[in-house]
Amino acid sequence: MTFSAPTTEQLFVLRTITGIEELASFERFAEATPDLVEAIVEGVGEFAAGEFAPLYRIGDTVGARLVDGAVKMPEGYAQAYQHYVEAGWSALSAPADHGGQGLPFSLATVALDSLGAANMAFALCPILTVGAIEALHHHGSDEQKALYLPKLATGEWTGTMNLTEPQAGSDVGALRATATPRGDGTWSIKGQKIYISFGDHDMADNIIHLVLARTPDAPAGTKGISLFLVPKYRLDADGNPGEANGVKTVSIEHKMGINASPTCVLQFGESVGELIGGEFGGIRAMFTMMNNARLNVGLQGVQIAEGATQKAMWFARERVQSARAGAGRDPVAIIEHPDVRRMLLRMKAGTEAIRALLYYASGFVDRANLGIDGAREMVDLLTPLAKTYGTDLGSEIASLGVQVHGGMGYVEETGAAQYYRDIRIAQIYEGTNGIQAADLVGRKLGMGGGDVVRGLIADVQRDCGNHPALSALAGDCAEVTEWMIGASVDDRLAGSYPYTTMMAVMTSGWLMLKQQRAAEAMLDAGEGNADFLSAKLVTTRFYLDRMVPEACGLKAGAMAGAEQLYALDAEALAG
Ligand SMILES: Cc1cc2nc3c(=O)[nH]c(=O)nc-3n(C[C@H](O)[C@H](O)[C@H](O)COP(=O)(O)OP(=O)(O)OC[C@H]3O[C@@H](n4cnc5c(N)ncnc54)[C@H](O)[C@@H]3O)c2cc1C
What is the pTM of this model? Predict the structure, then answer.
């Protein structure tokens, strides 16, 4: 089986869900003409299939290795990364005044969709660089931007995010890395960071670490955190990488998946850093850095779902087992059996649903950057939904991919298991899905006194009158929302996860309905690819009729409160 990027689907969703043509009507994105958009989507799709996909297996079987204190990527990675930089794929949405192409974030989302579907672990590297670019662009000084942004934009240098320490995971405020003034405006950074993705590698000339640390006498908790830029190599007078900056790769983790992504323990020993934004502005800058990264991690669910689905489809057509019940004696390909059909359609429809959710959210990132009213709030609301549901459903789809392969899925030979192992981390990093759900019922539900959430539900309700299951789910979401607003903190948090899923399925269902209507209209008008559009009618119906109703069943758990969860004390529960 060879991977091919789903470009017809991507272009359809970009047009019908993201509204790429409307975005291009703004001067800032005027270059995103339909021809250019199509050329980019097709071009990056071909690149992903030709350069990233062939390296997916070796990334897993060989993986990144630590050799004499430096990370060596598997064979072929450095060259493919070089080609990626030369082709300009890194610079798509990076700021135009600093070496980027200034195109919509939603177009970069499509590029990342293809790259990660071909090779998720490899495509994690650019996600981190985007986070560094965002933080620098919004919080860096003019001098810092001029020095670092152009090379990050092109991908010649890569970025990392350094939050986690052994005692500070979800609780970022517990971090202890220190920053001490050196008297010349720079800072001396000391401490150990763990789990740093692409903390070291041999694909780029420099690595720009963005590090959260505490300055002397900083207040405890998140209020006392500042963000520092710490290059692997300090820049010389010409702005080129010079002497090493005391960042030591102590070890790399042995993991369940994404073995091509080196997950490093980094020791900063008197490394020279520059403050980004003001002292104690670390949390604000960190959120800038993480916000788009969270959407991009949600997108990893789409990437894996796409790859796993393509693999399962191929296998199901090849593998012959048993006659189809009631249809003669000849054994048939397993794709003919009803339960395999169920799995394959669930995989295909689910992939399309989370792609729509992610592309919808990315459109709001662009609208927020254009300063359009209410867009920032929509990004804030959609981010926990997209991160959580994108990665949850992506994991479920990868698991179904293993199931479709039967025993061949569980043994490593076919590669179905790699998708399953790779995606599992996406539910954990960039804020675990549990933390995302807490964010939804904490910060996000409270936006505008609840009116941002109510507004989304009302939009769905206005638009879905003719679909009973979606109407019912939107009604349930409205009811749970009001209950949540009036509930105690404990009760709210106890139901946060099922509520997040309900809201995400409602939104995805609505976006599938929109696609169904667009496909019908195009078929009626004799436009577009009829085979693709006819398939779209089937997958949207499958999602709306079979997957949306499942989410109505979550209402009871969302409103059940916390009391039962504490009916056993910790000793009785775990003892
Ligand atoms: C492969 C990999 C790559 C990573 N890359 C990076 C990186 O590049 N940079 C970086 O800084 N970090 C990175 N991380 C770290 C990652 O972001 C953390 O693992 C994650 O934030 C969770 O922290 P933790 O592992 O300490 O889990 P914990 O915080 O100990 O959480 C354990 C469990 O408890 C739950 N939990 C914890 N607190 C709460 C709460 N208040 N309410 C409800 N539930 C709670 C969590 O949801 C989780 O289920 C990476 C991790 C891995 C494994």
Answer: 0.98
